[in-house]
Specification:
Blueprint (H helix, E strand, L loop, with lengths): L9 H5 L11 H4 L5 E3 L17 H10 L4 E3 L5 E3 L2 E6 L5 E6 L13 H12 L8 H5 L5 H5 L9 E5 L2 E5 L7 H4 L31 E7 L3 E6 L12 E5 L4 H9 L5 E3 L2 H8 L8 E14 L9 H9 L3 H8 L5 E2 L22 H10 L11 E6 L3 H18 L3 E6 L1 H9 L5 E7 L9 H5 L13 H11 L4 H18 L2 E13 L3 E2 L3 E2 L2 E2 L6 E2 L3
Parallel strand pairs: 1-10, 14-15
Antiparallel strand pairs: 2-3, 4-5, 5-7, 6-7, 8-9, 9-10, 11-17, 12-16, 12-17, 13-17, 18-21, 19-20
């Protein structure tokens, strides 16, 4: 999954009370003057970088753990624990030179052997990483290690304590971007129990700007500043991530001064834009993510292309974007989002055409919806934006096609596990870029060989186009190949693009130094909190 992935009636907003001067009460601020506080909407799905799948949890883990590379504020890959690297002439061998003197939180110095350990642990079949193949599978020997055919990853070589060499199977222009994903981040091997999941803050010994301090499920995860951070000590004392599942509670706590930043649901935005106290706190961020309706082509009845197209043509995406979500997002007419290499404004169009949808439904063998089993659409809990879109889709399918759709919310980790097992027939979900390349969307999600293809979809022509594009170094040719594949995928519609992601957040003016990228807020190395 990716990194990267938020209602309150107006009357409730107007009725909030208890705010002190400047909207931050003395009581709420006491003892918190230098702690950055913003909520997470559910328990972290894991504390282990080898297992992480979701953007909410990545935002926590990236404060604690680091990798060879990172994303810069210019949305390019920059050195992190590697100061620089060389790439062989054929594009398959990367030699990384480590930053000298970097230490784990337990004061032990990092070496190339630690990176080899982290990669090999992630690829140990006993670890059961759901993401190792996605982001490390290009490395020679990774798939043999994942399959239990090898005890090591042959393509990862310790040249000396300060030098790591990684060999990949073929030239891949996006490979450095893959190394920004936490599955290859480094941590102190002496703190973990082999392949067992990292499950406590005591085991979370990385090199990052913050040290894991406390985790109480359903309550809070807190981090304290790392005074010995190799990039310079953070400018604040720590970070608190209270676990607040209810969006109205999150907003209440922001307004009462208990939070410094909060992600908003779309339904809250209009009232806040009209609120003189908070309108200047409101910030918008375009993100390289797509929200879509998924249909598992390997499970009946969604193995029927005519049914999938009928469902797509019966959904009024303009109504959902403009009315249900308040016009804050852009309708998605392609799969690759804005900001990602290869994005096109329009691909193969998906018209809203209920009459044609009825004809396709009959062609699929379900005239007027007769004979079609009742469908169940799944989505994650505690996200009103997701629910209202799912409700709108269900209503439109009933009105336009006579199809009954029930809705099912699921706890986030359970949802991810079911999705990873390819057992989700019909669902509303997001995919956000881990690196700004079309391979991260088209090949990874929808090619027949894609490690994140959880819907059994495989158009052989599209798959072949993606496979060729993945290792083509000529950018113009790559993008032509990906565009052809994307058009075929939009014709087949294993999932229906609904809208591209745009986040709305309240950020208190006393917070400064947030570093931004398309992926979201970068690790909080420069954040400062002004006194009241």
């Amino acid at each position: 999954m990716s990194r990267f992935l938020w209602c309150l009636p107006l009357v409730a907003l107007l009725g909030l009370s208890g705010c002190g001067k400047g909207n931050f009460s003395e009581r709420a601020q006491e003892g918190k003057e230098s702690v950055f506080r913003y909520p997470i909407v559910t328990n972290p799905t894991t504390l282990d970088p080898a297992l992480i799948q979701d953007g909410d949890t990545i935002d926590i883990l990236q404060q604690v753990y680091e990798g060879l590379t990172a994303w810069g504020e210019d949305n390019t890959v920059v050195p992190n624990l590697a100061t620089h690297w060389e790439i062989s002439g054929d594009g398959t061998v990367y030699t990384f030179h480590l930053k000298p003197g970097v230490k784990f939180h337990n004061s032990r110095e990092v070496s190339a052997e630690d990176f080899k350990f982290a990669i090999e642990r992630a690829c140990d079949p006993a670890t059961k990483s759901p993401v190792a193949e996605n982001y490390l599978g290009d490395i020679v020997g990774v798939r043999d290690r994942l399959a239990g055919k090898a005890q090591t990853v042959s393509g990862v070589e310790v040249v000396d304590p300060a030098t790591l060499r990684i060999t990949i199977d073929k030239p891949r222009p996006y490979f450095l971007g893959k190394l920004t994903y936490p599955v290859s981040f480094v941590y102190a091997k002496e703190a973990v129990d082999g392949s067992a999941e990292i499950a406590s803050t005591a085991q979370m010994i990385g090199t990052g700007p913050y040290i894991a301090d406390k985790y109480v499920p359903d309550q809070i995860l807190s981090l304290k500043a790392n005074p010995n951070y190799h990039g310079g000590a953070p400018k604040i004392a720590g970070i608190e991530r209270p676990i607040i599942k209810d969006p109205a509670t999150r907003l209440n706590k922001y307004k009462s001064g208990e939070l410094d930043l909060v992600m908003l649901e779309r339904q809250d935005v209009a009232a806040l834009q009209a609120d003189p106290q908070f309108k200047d706190h409101l910030k918008f961020f375009n993100r390289p993510g797509i929200w879509y309706i998924g249909m598992n082509a390997g499970l009946k009845p969604f193995d029927n292309k005519d049914l999938r197209r009928a469902i797509a043509m019966a959904i009024d995406r303009d109504y959902i974007v403009d009315k249900v979500l308040g016009g804050l997002n852009v309708r998605a007419d392609t799969i690759v989002p804005p900001g990602v290499l290869g994005h096109r404004e329009r691909g193969t169009p998906i018209p809203y055409n209920p009459a044609a949808a009825k004809e396709l439904l009959a062609k699929a063998g379900y005239p007027g919806g007769k004979g079609l089993p009742k469908l169940e659409m799944s989505f994650r809990e505690q996200r009103p934006d997701i629910r209202v879109v799912a409700e709108a889709v269900a209503s439109q399918l009933k009105e336009n096609l006579g199809i009954d759709v029930s809705l099912r919310t699921m706890e986030w980790r359970t949802y991810l596990e079911k999705h990873a097992a390819k057992e989700m027939p019909f669902f509303h979900m997001r995919w956000a870029a881990d690196y700004l390349d079309p391979e991260n969307f088209l090949s990874l999600l929808l090619a027949g060989y894609g490690a994140e293809n959880k819907i059994h979809y495989d158009n052989p022509v599209a798959t072949a186009l993606c496979r060729e594009a993945d290792s083509t170094m000529d950018e113009k040719r790559r993008l032509e190949l990906y565009a052809q594949a994307e058009d075929l995928m939009l014709e087949d519609l294993p999932f229906i693009p609904i809208y591209f992601q745009r986040d709305a957040e309240l950020i208190h003016p006393r917070i400064s130094g947030l570093r931004e990228s398309l992926f979201g807020h970068l690790p909080h190395t420069q954040v400062e909190i002004a006194p009241k």
